[in-house]
Design a protein that fits this description.
This protein is globular. Strand 16 (about 235-240) and strand 17 (about 245-250) form a beta hairpin. It is about 5% helix and about 50% strand. The termini are far apart. The protein contains two helices and 28 strands. About 40% of the residues are buried. Strands 6-5-4-3-2-1-28 form a seven-stranded antiparallel sheet, with no helix packed on it. Strands 19, 20, 21, 22 and 23 form a five-stranded antiparallel sheet that branches. The protein has a four-stranded antiparallel sheet with strand order 7-8-9-10, with no helix packed on it. It is mainly β.
Length: about 375
């Protein structure tokens, strides 16, 4: 009996101590919005459509120096992403369904603060943006950042013009047979590639409404030697890689797009070996040094343009000459940092990995890390 009373008293004292300890815990409250580390040229924006579970798409922000994740934003289903010209905002056009993966479809253009990843705006958008893998040419902005351009495919193709300042859609411009968004830097206009080997240029007024439409002469063969939709850009100049290894330079600064140059990346010997560009982002351009990077694979054939890259070839754009070539781990796209001391990044969609190279033209692998998502297919730098 005494032993039982002792046990009861012990448990009572223990419970009192526990209650007193719990009473002393402070209540946690949310105070301020956290900020990302200070922006730097090696910050990466890796867009993942998440094919195994489409409603859970995301954009991952990564420090390309350390390969550490700095943050992430949810992007919904089949989202397309881009950044404002000053890199202060992240834009996402995405699809939602009332019953997660079915039901009523509705869409929005989301605006995130690139420094805090806080959601700043939700702009209503018609349910017809392109349900495709994220590409560099499916969501873009005007040079001044006033307008956001959205590639639509319902499956009829058109371009949506969204006013960022007024947070509303201005208009939809029909572009039958044309796909991809290529804004000018020196004028308020946007061009798009067409299936007949031409480019359509749409001039806009200050209100975002179209004022003129002009088609270029035919400048590529869409059947025998089509162009990849993801080019490299230098102002009004876009450098497109063709399926057979040409670089086609197009000036979109005027009312009509003009093909101003064309040269082959692949010497005769390598052509016999079937070397061709491939991937989702086959080329990248470091503007300051005039260095162009291209990912190529050997034994190419009709339909191999989405095969992984085996080598990265480095070119002097002005001389139109290959100056180096390097083997690379399996990759599907390239992006390069801006400014001095550039770093080249290659990404692998299958393993959600990123490989980093230093050395400008004499590439040296300096880092590699996997596990950034499920099926990322677009990479942009700060």
């Amino acid at each position: 009996m005494k032993r039982t009373m002792w046990l009861v008293q012990f448990l009572f004292v223990l419970g009192s101590v526990s209650l007193n300890a719990n009473a002393e815990l402070s209540i946690e409250t949310v105070t301020t919005q956290e900020r990302l580390p200070a922006a730097h040229p090696y910050r990466l924006y890796y867009t993942d459509v998440a094919l195994p579970h489409l409603p859970d798409g995301k954009l991952v922000v990564i420090d390309g120096r350390t390969m550490k994740v700095e943050g992430m934003v949810s992007t919904g289903s089949f989202a397309q992403t881009t950044l404002s010209p000053d890199r202060s905002e992240i834009y996402v056009v995405t699809t939602y369904y009332t019953k997660l993966n079915r039901g009523e479809r509705f869409e929005e253009v989301l605006v995130y603060d690139a420094n805090t990843l806080a959601l700043k705006a939700e702009i209503p958008y018609p349910a017809r943006h392109s349900q495709s893998l994220p590409y560099l040419a499916t969501l873009r902005t005007s040079a001044d950042g006033r307008f956001i351009y959205v590639q639509n495919a319902s499956p009829a193709t058109s371009i949506g013009i969204v006013d960022r300042q007024q947070e509303r859609m201005v208009t939809e411009i029909q572009t039958p047979g044309c796909f991809g968004l290529y804004p000018a830097q020196s004028s308020l206009s946007i061009s798009t590639l067409c299936g007949d080997g031409t480019m359509l240029t749409i001039s806009l007024g200050v209100d975002g409404m179209p004022t003129d439409k002009q088609k270029s002469p035919e400048f590529f063969d869409p059947t025998e030697n089509a162009l990849f939709v993801a080019p490299a850009q230098d102002g009004d100049l876009y450098y497109f890689a063709s399926f057979l290894g040409d670089i086609v330079t197009v000036d979109v600064g005027g009312g009509v797009a003009k093909s101003v140059d064309r040269w082959s990346m692949v010497p005769a010997k390598e052509k016999k070996q079937g070397w061709r560009p491939s991937g989702f982002q086959p080329i990248a351009l470091h503007v300051d040094s005039g260095t162009l990077y291209a990912g190529l694979h050997s034994k190419g054939y009709e339909g191999s343009h989405k095969d992984p890259m085996q080598e990265i070839w480095v070119f002097d754009v002005k001389a139109k000459k290959r100056v180096a070539r390097s083997k690379t781990p399996t990759a599907f796209g390239l992006a390069v940092s801006k400014g001095g001391a550039p770093r080249l990044f290659a990404y692998n969609t299958e393993h959600s990995s990123i490989i980093a190279f230093d050395g400008l033209r004499k590439l040296k692998k300096v880092a590699e890390k996997a596990g950034f998502g499920d099926t990322p297919s677009q990479l942009e730098t700060q």
